[in-house]
């Protein structure tokens, strides 16, 4: 039965909120409700003026900021002064956030507050999902209960399905499950039983000169790693509840009956970026850490056109393909043949295509697997549920269903902890043969990786430097994993030798002539104050110091320019000092002999007067007590209070959102309370929030992202 209409307004930075919003819409439609699902920034094309029920779904970016595709809507909402604008409207909200960030789910909280001010009534409490714990934990039950709340607020009610499935029912389902025909076909390119040579059609992909994709020649190629999971809770007769519903197929993977070559040197045209892609050669690389340091950190320099606009504090995106060995192995597993996987052109079709596939009108499977979908981050329950539908062996199918169920939560968490690639999942469940269309429905979008610029354009107009840790880690079950972009960049730059512990001199390496596809991403929320008289307090341990180095370089160049202009009088040094506020840097490392990233450079900044002081917090000293940046801030409370409150210093924090940013925030609040007896903890935190809003306290934070 068709009910009154609802409006879903969604905003998403990396695709999860988009996927969830569209799924809610699909399910609502299946349940007989009528409504629309619209991107927040396209609100003008929606029924916002008349919709009785609005469901907001949004993630966050930056420091509790709305996603880019919500900014226009957010401005519209904020400027709206009509207290009755939403007077007859009923709203609910689903936020996707991460408790690693201090402004947890700030976007939906702010939207809710503003909508209430404009007269809206909340018909169902908002859901605040946490990426740190697994979005499903909140999203799935929230959506389940939405189907109870929605009919009450709408005029009529759609049918509500039960999500209980028993093992016996699964057996019945198996009888009707269609398994992709490829499952039974022998793989003509398999190396099994071959003594020499490579499978037909593979050789030509092995030696691509100047390619973005580095193909390894060894065959049979990458093997997946089967996951370690415990199914002892899966006892006969167990009722599996809380299973995600089998999501409706919405994407078609249609053959164009034509072939084309894979875009090995260029990012394929379907990849959408906010600013144009620029191909930048690597001009130098240096490893900033010693071999025995916990992390391998590189400083890379790209050569760019001097027309490229960037300011210190800006970031840029790198479009790195998924690992080619992984892509190749998946093609062998999923495509009818390896040649077809690399050459057969397809169109991605569907009514409401996700943003990342909307331009995929003529693509190969290889390109989709390289640049279209995320193959390496922890799987969603809905993906596992879909894989179960395409698994022929009853035990494997049951296990997959168990992992998705409420009863199998511990095993779902065990899957997440092992961060399996798609290949690992298919290896763990060998009779699983999902069609490409369903994978496109359920795999998240492949993401560009963002890095902060570590240099000033005043120093090098045509150079772009950035520092990053090469992401490799071992899971609790002992599987060695690596990120996508950082190991790729490391390889392309010739795996620079480690820093020698006794010096920080540049090391050379054999750099590939591959050009790195990048696009700029201005960061208006992390900029130097225009007024150079204002002192700066720069806090950034680890790679967080990189953009701060860009700020300091900028100030150093500004000082030189000022000096060159002349007219400074009898005491040029003193006059210059008057023009530029003092800079105090708070840096941190584990052990200065191993991973103090820009030690020499900052010593130089102090020497030439650009920086007033550098305080280094050492968390794993060979001798003495360990310290974090927040400890040093507490020690320097009186100095910092004077700088911040009396001299209007601007505070910059860059780095880890979790421990460091929270610790520094607490230390600043404590410092305020100590030096201003009128402030209690609450008022001190409120003052910090006000400073954030006023652009005096700026933060550029990241949560530990394994997929970098
Ligand atoms: C750069 C960045 C900044 C983020 N900032 C916040 C934040 O301030 N508060 C929060 O609750 N979540 C924050 N998140 C977490 C996202 O909201 C969360 O991961 C969400 O699931 C992403 O959904 P999306 O794919 O729809 O963008 C941030 C994530 C990233 C990558």
TrEMBL record:
GO MF term set: [methionine synthase] reductase (NADPH) activity; flavin adenine dinucleotide binding; FMN binding
Domain FAD-binding FR-type, first and last residues per copy: 275-529
Sequence ranges assigned to domain Flavodoxin-like in this UniProt record: 6-147
PROSITE patterns named in the record: FAD_FR (PS51384), FLAVODOXIN_LIKE (PS50902)
The keyword Ribonucleoprotein appears for this protein: no
Record EC number: 1.16.1.8
Domain of life: Eukaryota
Cofactor entry: FAD; FMN
Key words, A-Z: Amino-acid biosynthesis, FAD, Flavoprotein, FMN, Methionine biosynthesis, NADP, Oxidoreductase, S-adenosyl-L-methionine
Record Pfam families: FAD_binding_1, Flavodoxin_1, NAD_binding_1
Protein name as annotated: Methionine synthase reductase
Organism: Absidia glauca (Pin mould)
Originating gene: ABSGL_13253.1 scaffold 13659
């Amino acid at each position: 039965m068709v009910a009154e209409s609802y409006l879903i307004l969604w905003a998403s930075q990396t695709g999860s909120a988009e996927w969830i919003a569209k799924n809610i819409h699909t399910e609502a439609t299946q349940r007989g409700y009528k409504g629309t699902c619209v991107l927040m920034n396209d609100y003008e094309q929606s029924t916002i003026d008349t919709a009785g029920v609005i469901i907001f779904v949004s993630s966050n970016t930056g420091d509790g900021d709305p996603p880019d595709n919500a900014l226009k809507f957010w401005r519209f909402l904020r400027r709206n002064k009509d207290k009755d604008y939403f007077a007859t409207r009923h709203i609910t909200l689903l936020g996707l956030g991460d408790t690693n960030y201090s402004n947890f789910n700030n976007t939906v909280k702010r939207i809710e507050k503003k909508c209430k001010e404009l007269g809206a009534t909340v018909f169902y409490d908002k859901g605040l999902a946490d990426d740190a714990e697994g979005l499903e934990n909140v999203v799935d039950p929230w959506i389940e209960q939405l189907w109870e709340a929605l009919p009450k607020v709408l005029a009529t009610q759609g049918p509500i399905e039960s999500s209980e499935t028993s093992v016996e029912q699964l057996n019945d389902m198996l009888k009707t499950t269609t398994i992709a025909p490829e499952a039974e076909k022998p793989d003509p390119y398999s190396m099994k039983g071959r003594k020499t040579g490579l499978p037909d059609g593979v050789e030509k992909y092995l030696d691509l000169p100047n390619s973005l994709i580095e193909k390894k020649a060894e065959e049979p190629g990458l093997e997946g790693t089967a996951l370690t999971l415990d199914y002892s809770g899966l006892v006969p007769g167990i009722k599996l509840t809380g299973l995600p519903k089998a999501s409706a197929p919405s994407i078609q993977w249609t053959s164009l009956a034509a072939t084309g070559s894979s875009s090995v040197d260029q990012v394929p045209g379907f990849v959408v970026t906010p600013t144009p892609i620029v191909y930048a050669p690597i001009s130098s690389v240096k490893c900033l850490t010693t071999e025995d340091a916990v992390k391998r950190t590189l400083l890379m320099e790209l050569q760019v056109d001097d027309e490229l606009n960037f300011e210190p504090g800006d970031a840029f995106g790198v479009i790195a393909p998924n690992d080619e060995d992984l892509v190749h192995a998946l093609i062998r597993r999923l495509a009818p043949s390896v040649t077809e996987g690399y050459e057969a052109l397809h169109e991605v079709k569907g009514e409401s295509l996700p943003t990342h596939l909307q331009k995929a009108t003529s693509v190969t499977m290889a390109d989709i697997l390289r640049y279209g979908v995320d193959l390496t981050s922890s799987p969603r329950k809905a993906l596992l549920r879909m894989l179960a539908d395409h698994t022929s062996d009853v035990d494997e199918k049951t296990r997959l269903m168990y992992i998705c169920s409420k009863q199998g939560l511990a095993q779902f968490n065990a899957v997440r902890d092992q961060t399996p690639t798609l290949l690992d999942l298919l290896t763990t469940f060998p009779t699983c043969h999902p069609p490409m269309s369903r994978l496109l429905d359920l795999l998240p979008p492949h993401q560009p990786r963002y890095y902060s610029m570590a240099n000033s354009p005043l120093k090098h107009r045509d150079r772009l430097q950035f520092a990053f840790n090469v992401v490799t880690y071992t899971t609790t079950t002992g599987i060695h994993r690596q990120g996508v972009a950082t190991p790729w960049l490391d390889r392309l730059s010739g795996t620079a030798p480690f820093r020698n512990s006794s010096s920080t001199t540049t090391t050379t390496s054999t750099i590939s002539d591959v050009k790195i596809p990048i696009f700029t991403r201005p960061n208006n929320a992390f900029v130097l104050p225009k007024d150079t008289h204002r002192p700066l307090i720069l806090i950034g341990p680890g790679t967080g110091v990189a953009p701060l180095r860009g700020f300091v370089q900028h100030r150093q160049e500004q000082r030189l320019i000022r000096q060159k202009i002349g007219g400074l009088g009898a005491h040029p040094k003193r006059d210059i000092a008057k023009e530029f506020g003092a800079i105090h840097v708070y840096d941190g490392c584990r052990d200065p002999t191993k991973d103090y990233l820009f030690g020499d450079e900052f010593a130089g900044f102090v020497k030439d007067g650009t920086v007033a002081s550098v305080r280094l917090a050492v968390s794993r000293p060979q001798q003495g007590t360990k310290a974090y940046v927040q400890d040093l801030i507490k020690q320097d409370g009186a100095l910092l209070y004077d700088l911040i409150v009396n001299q209007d210093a601007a505070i910059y924090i860059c780095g880890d959102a979790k421990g460091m940013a929270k610790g520094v925030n607490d230390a600043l609040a404590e410092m305020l309370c100590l030096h201003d007896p009128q402030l209690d903890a609450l008022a001190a935190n409120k003052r910090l929030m006000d400073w954030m809003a006023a652009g005096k306290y700026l933060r550029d934070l990241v949560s530990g992202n394994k997929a970098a």
